[in-house]
Amino acid sequence: MSRSIKTIAIRIASTSALAATAFTMVVANPASASPLTDGISATARAEDGNGACAHGGYDGGPNQNSSCANGRTAHAWCADFAGWVWARNGVTGLSTLTDGAASFMAYGKKYGTISNQPHVGDAVVFNYNGSDWAAHVALVTGVSGNTVTITGGNQGGGAGHVSTASTTNWQVGTTLWNQKVSGYVSPAGSSTPSLPNPASLADGTLVKSASGPAVKVLVKGAGLAVAGSDVTPDKYDLGKVVTIDDQAFRSLFSAPPSGTVVHDQAGGADRYVIIGDAALKIGGADWVSGGYNTRADMGVPTSWLKNAAQQTVATGIVVMDQSGTDPSRYIMVAGSALHISGSEWTADKYNEQTLMGVPAEWLKGAVAKPLQSGTVVMNQSGTDSSRYVMVGGTPVGISATEWTSVGFDKLSLMGVPGEWLGSAVTKQVADGTIVKDASGNSATVSVMAGGVAVPLTNADFTGFGYDQRPLDGAPAAWLASATAKAAPANGTMVKSLNDPTVWEIVNGKKRGMAGSEFGAGKRSFDDVVGVGSAFIAKFPTA
Length: 542
Description:
The protein is an alpha+beta fold. The radius of gyration is 29 Å and the shape is elongated.
């Protein structure tokens, strides 16, 4: 075996009285194949290679927590994965399970299903202390003669992933992959004995719950909602809908696994790749260079795809150019891709996150997209305690008093690469950004022009159409400093509402510009900032 199973040493508090004495093994003959056990095996092995945040995270029994939080591994997740697989196959009694591997032994004691013989579908527990802790849990996904195949989550070192391996050294009490086999726990039963397991159905199958009329189409283990408007153009035959168990129907993922290539079932040339809940359009050049043409191309409901194409890749997802042309790595934050330097890749543990390949054309747009105004950020490394809020594409500092008095501390705080942050804070807030004191203590509205916050009259605010633009809340201390600046940066172009003259600010003076200075390859009128005439009058004519 090339990879060893990662030891998971998380001790949990017991929520029930677990016997401290040695447990009695229930010996059973190897079980024959069944829809339940075959479904467990198929579901588990289909996840090979996935990390903790596949499908948005593994979350099984009602007392288990998701393996993923904010795009990152939430905690040791071997028990979450095993519970998720059992839940997907309708296994009963899952309220006994927690995020701890030992809870599977508690389940076995409760239902009398602990054995020293492996059966397909069993949970195999390692290093159980006889009470409330175990090092790891995985699932038996194959038994052939003396060879047992095991699939588990949070294996392989680092951030962990799902992996499968076979062994002949499976006996209880022996050491397997540096951990002692403590026992095998069979599922107590299934709530869906007479209904097909979704894992056994082919892609493209239409399914519904036994208790409701809603229809989904199966695509790579996910159930995508089929709207009434999809039926005719997508050519879905409602006479071929398969009824499945209600729990299985509800637990179907709402999006196919990341990396799945999809197109509109109704037709069209556009192709997309799924990353989390988002569908990213694949550019023409990316289709071959990114290797997307070698993947299965799945038809999905028109309405579902339209919605997915409008989603942003979740914050915390680490991405790269699928074609490999750009070797850089980026972290997604509020829809923008921020560059991760080589030194930060390991120092800030970005290398422990699942790395997603994305279309090069899409990535260029995400890199160029300014980080959303109002996003609160800090240095991911934690070496800088400063906090910043994004205003017009630039992070501006939040003073300690404003952090709590204004309520910035109530907003989500995003960790960003330190080198990106260090570069971004040196840039001036984009010209034309409309700002206001975030505390609400001042009603003044200003427009940014060359780093200066220029107060606006009501006539200027509406006359220039600024009332149609977003209004960014800025920290009062920073705003006061920006208002007090003597003059805009050299090259800033301004004009007043009732004067057609465009003025360029140079070294604190104004210079009237000629019409010949504008046009293709020259200056653009789009970069001219509308300000009050009193502001322009302050500067002497050059």
